[in-house]
Amino acid sequence: MPTHAALINIDTPAALIERPRMQRNIARMQARMNALGVRFRPHAKTAKCTAVTRAQVAAGAQGITVSTLKEAEQFFADGVTDILYAVGMVPHKLPQALALRRKGCDLKIITDNAAAATAIAEFGRAQGEVFDVLIEVDTDGHRSGIKPDEAALITVGRALHDGGMRLAGVMTHAGGSYDLNTPDALTALAEQERAGCVRAAERLRAEGLPCAVVSVGSTPTALSARSLEGVTEVRAGVYVFFDLVMHNVGVCSTDDIALSVLTTVIGHQADKGWAIVDAGWMAMSRDRGTQKQPRDYGYGQVCDVNGNVLDGYVLTGANQEHGILSRADGQLQSDVDIAQRFPVGMQLRILPNHACATGAQYGEYHAVEDGVVKETWARFGGW
Question: Which of 373, 242, 246, 247 is nearest to 305 (CA)?
Answer without folding.
Answer: 373
